[in-house]
Specification:
By secondary structure, the chain is α+β, with helices and mostly antiparallel strands. It is built from 8 helices and 4 strands; from the N terminus they run H-H-H-H-H-H-E-H-E-E-E-H. Strands 2-1-3-4 form a 4-stranded mixed β-sheet.
């Protein structure tokens, strides 16, 4: 039995991935699912209607079909209609993430989370991407995050490896160094 929403989303993503690969439509379906997730994320009326437990399945499916019928591949539309039928469309962002992971794995692309204190320019992200691709000797895609709490610098995560070059970490490390020096100085003074 699947116990978490991530596991459920992963199963849906695997099913969509397998079907899209069989049909030779991975790139287009990837685009479609990203587009559909963006429409859901940006439109509160759609989210509210689909999230309404009293909305009939047929009305939900009709709404989705009307919005996307001429804008996405038939496979993508069928997939979202199945999600709506099972009231699982709220999992679309997680499904998209899991689906992208499967596509990246298939293509040999490494997904890297890059966290900065501010939005970078496209040129800056491009430079980071190029350097990481050269270091890893593989194509990369960046999962861009902004966290003003890191003050400055950059945090790079590849799988379970983390490189923390943030100003916050450097300040924390410097504070520990000062604490160690103070403790050493106190110990030396007490010994005298």
């Amino acid at each position: 039995m699947l116990s978490t929403t991530h596991e459920i989303a992963g199963k849906y993503a695997e099913a969509l991935f397998d079907l899209a690969r069989e049909e030779g439509a991975l790139p287009k379906v990837k685009e479609d699912i990203r587009f559909i997730a963006a429409v859901f994320a940006q439109n509160a009326q759609i989210r509210d209607f689909l999230g309404n437990p009293f909305a009939e399945r047929s009305a939900r499916k009709n709404m989705i079909a009307e919005i996307f019928k001429d804008r996405v591949q038939p496979l993508s539309l069928k997939f979202v209609l199945v999600l709506a039928d099972k009231r699982m469309e709220k999992l679309l962002p997680l499904i998209l993430k899991a689906f992208n992971g499967l596509v990246y794995e298939e293509e040999g692309v490494v997904e890297i989370r890059v966290t900065t204190a501010r939005n970078l320019t496209e040129d800056e992200y491009g430079m980071i991407s190029e350097r990481l691709a050269a270091a890893l000797k593989k194509p990369v895609t960046l999962d861009r995050r902004v966290d003003k709490g890191i003050v400055g610098g950059i945090i790079i995560q590849v799988g379970d490896r983390l490189v923390n070059g943030s100003v916050t970490k450097r300040l924390r490390d410097f504070g520990r160094l000062l604490d160690d020096l103070n403790a050493g100085a106190k110990g030396a003074a007490e010994a005298v």
